[in-house]
Amino acid sequence: LARIADPERKTAIFDAAERLFSARGYHATSVRDIAAEIDRQGASLYAHVGGKEDILWGVVSRAADEFFAALAPILAADLPPVEKLRRAIAAHVRVVTSSPDAATVYLHEWQQLGPARRAAVRRRRDEYEGLLRGLIAAGVADGSFAPVDPKFAGLLVLSAVNGVYQWYRPGGALDPEQIAAHLTDLILNGLLPAGKDVRKECP
Amino acid sequence: LARIADPERKTAIFDAAERLFSARGYHATSVRDIAAEIDRQGASLYAHVGGKEDILWGVVSRAADEFFAALAPILAADLPPVEKLRRAIAAHVRVVTSSPDAATVYLHEWQQLGPARRAAVRRRRDEYEGLLRGLIAAGVADGSFAPVDPKFAGLLVLSAVNGVYQWYRPGGALDPEQIAAHLTDLILNGLLPAGKDVRKECP
Questions:
Q1: Is CB count within 10 Å lower at the N or C end of chain B?
Q2: pLDDT of residue B2
Q3: Does the CB of B25 have a partner CB in chain A at under 8 Å?
């Protein structure tokens, strides 16, 4: 996509593609459809971006960048693990809710990429999951968290925050910060009340 | 799909469609592809099932039926809420892991159905979510669970068990029962150890 010199036009193409890929799916969307969304000729778009898979790759990469950009400063901060996890959940929920279309494309339509790019996306997803896992492992190590399996706990956190794109509707009863707070409370404290928690016996 | 008299042939068509819809997506799969999978002529398949959307509807409905069939006896049983939740999580994970392709089609490709059928799927998903929510609300009411928001807790549980289809690979390190046990432990007990749980102060 280096051939697109104008960053505004590039953003417009990705925005339009993101909406259409999310609503109809990658295969049901043509480059002509994307071009029509931004009042351009399909042929002219092709000349600029090379092909539909390049656009999907651009949209997916942009979404991945957003998730990493939101998480990186939290992990780098000098904060206890519980506070890092709280902020990581809020940051992820913010990315998902600010663009449910980007989340849909990143979480599902990426599978329509070719093998090499699919492998690259998988590596980035694994890397992101690894960062969450590391954060949880650090909390287990210093006693901030119970001795949970960091792998499973990381997958649970990821499932919870990614799942938001399935049911979130802008303008609903709760805003993204409240959703994040609810999820964080449940993930940290679980469903059981004091005394019934098998791992947390009171003295 | 009433026109398919032979249940075995119907199952074979749905199985083939499920694999292809999951791997390639609905739009990239033709009725001819499905027919080729089961060594039949595309035209003959068309004559039997009416069209590709009918096949998608059949696959999605079958998956929904499986989830309900697994959950219903658990809810009807005379068991405490914690035990029901434990079994509901295990049952859902069992359905997802026994057929990741069905889960993928049910959780994503259903959105390619026409508006009326999409609304019908949404109603069934809402109904299933409502059953989980009711189970959690019952546990909150009798003190088995902390005073959590049943809606959020239900969504968290659903996200956690549905998320399994994103990373589960048959033959991995943990079998479905162990995955369910890990998730249940995390969902019930949370990440925090005793004493640091803000909701669970020891007397």
A1: C
A2: 47
A3: yes
